[in-house]
TrEMBL record:
It comes from Actinacidiphila paucisporea. It is found in: Cell membrane. Residues 1-21 are annotated as: Disordered. Residues 166-396 form the Peptidase M48 domain. The chain crosses the membrane at residues 97-117, 123-140, 263-286. This is Zn-dependent protease with chaperone function. GO terms for biological process: proteolysis.
Length: 440
């Protein structure tokens, strides 16, 4: 494998000698590379040949429209006056009030259960009902999260170089360091906290990590630490746990709707409908109250990433995210190939170079295809994930407000290569498991 993960991605220009065809809309000649979608940069013909399915149901449709409107409003506001300090606005207060009400109702159910049991005495039915309520409380208790099982983890002692970089970035963003790093196969990265002591976990997607050049990696990590520094509501202890509790209620109360169920169950389902709708309403309300704050947190994390890794690197990083779908498809293809290999040594070879091959795949995507993907993101706006502002607006905000920001933390090619050498054994373990277990 000649792949050098530490080199900055060079954007491949269109190959000379690619056949051309005439655009059916405007008549301009457009390159027709058989490996990619043929489209016209002049009039936009066929830029998005397979638009996603329209949203299911009115609620989801409305959520997307609201999210798109918020994203645009926030963009305009932030481009005008900068991100400002994180603050709790009216909807943030409403979200907290609602979340506390959810937690108090869990306490109320627990108290009722205990009272039923202690005063039940000889009434077996009452004691039983109390026990059922306590069981319900056990499944409703606020979940603090835990370290994922069967994850490839990197501890401080095995990856001192990586942790040294993470600590520098944490200090620069004014927040405490992470306790553990988990490696996975996503074209993404993320942070959470878990357990009562709120230990910090950074999830690093190996394909994305290898697609990025050294300084882009710093910008990515700066973005993630930006989420810690922001105190993101949805991840917060009060609101985050209320969302999971409501999710459990929703799951428990949801009518089965099965055909041919017995009459008793139909009646039981009908009784469940009003509380289920009530919980659904609460979920939507909490979602509505936090949506704007979540999007604002995302923009703000971008700007922190720019301050730490430089404005240019942060913008390039959002560009790489547009390649996620293509890289994901390539990962699936690699997994299919690897599973056809019978010799153990062949399978080991497949695992050894996996992340580098995915990075090569991304690097081979020509500038013209990248431009098309950028336009697709713009055309689709929020259609994939409404908690994030659209990628093109994130990129635009970075270019508008942070283009010339210098890096506060720098990483050179040698430093990046040293980190890659450190994490190589764990990355290979993650590759083995991914090729074996990836759901195709
Ligand atoms: Zn055209
Ligand atoms: Zn983010």
């Amino acid at each position: 494998m000649s792949h050098d993960a530490a080199a900055a991605p060079a954007h491949v220009p269109d190959k000379p000698g690619v056949p051309e065809r005439e655009c059916p809309e405007c008549g301009a000649m457009t390159p027709a590379d058989p490996r990619f979608v043929v489209w016209c940069a002049g009039c936009g013909w066929n830029a998005d040949p397979l638009p996603p399915e329209p949203p299911q149901g009115r609620l989801q449709g409305r959520r997307r429209r609201t999210a798109a409107r918020y994203g645009e409003q926030l963009y305009a506001e932030l481009a005008r006056s900068g991100p400002g300090a994180p603050r709790l606005d009216a909807s943030g207060v409403a979200a907290h009030v609602l979340a506390w009400a959810v937690h108090l109702s869990t306490v109320a159910v627990a108290v009722a259960g205990v009272l039923l049991i202690t005063t039940g005495g000889a009434f077996a039915l009452q004691v039983l009902l109390g026990a059922v309520l306590l069981l319900v409380v056990v499944s409703l208790r606020p979940r603090l999260g835990r370290l994922p099982k069967d994850a490839v983890t990197l501890r401080r002692d095995t990856a001192p170089g990586l942790y040294a970089l993470l600590d520098r970035i944490a200090a620069e963003s004014g927040t405490r360091p992470v306790d553990v790093v988990v490696l996975d196969a996503s074209v993404n990265a993320g942070v959470t906290e878990y357990g009562l002591r709120r230990r910090r976990l950074l999830v690093l997607g190996l394909p994305l990590w290898h697609m990025l050049g050294p300084q882009q990696r710093v910008a990515l990590l700066g973005h993630e630490f930006g989420h810690y520094a922001n105190g993101d509501q949805r991840r917060g202890l009060v609101v985050g746990t209320a969302l999971t509790t409501l999710g459990t209620w929703h799951h428990v109360l949801r009518p089965s709707g099965q055909r041919g169920r017995p009459v008793v169950q139909i009646i039981a389902d009908l009784i469940m409908v009003p509380p289920w709708l009530f919980v659904l309403g609460l979920l939507h309300l909490l979602d509505h109250f936090t949506l704007r704050a979540t999007q604002r947190a995302e923009y703000r994390a971008d700007l922190i990433g720019a301050r730490i890794g430089s404005g240019a690197a942060a913008a390039e990083c959002t560009d790489e995210l547009l390649l996620a779908e293509s890289v994901d498809r390539e990962l699936r293809r690699q997994a299919v190939l690897a599973r056809t290999r019978t010799r153990a040594s062949d399978r080991e070879d497949a695992a050894a170079g996996l992340w580098g091959r995915l990075a090569d795949h991304a690097r081979d995507i020509p500038a013209r295809e990248r431009e098309r993907l950028r336009r697709v993101a713009e055309l689709r706006g929020h259609s994939t994930d409404s908690t994030h502002p659209p990628t093109h607006l994130r990129r635009a905000l970075l270019l508008d407000t942070a283009r010339d920001l210098p890096a506060a933390v720098t990483l050179d090619a040698a430093g990046a290569a040293a980190i890659d050498a450190e994490i190589a054994p764990a990355a290979r373990q993650a590759a083995r498991w991914t090729l074996r277990d990836l759901h195709l």
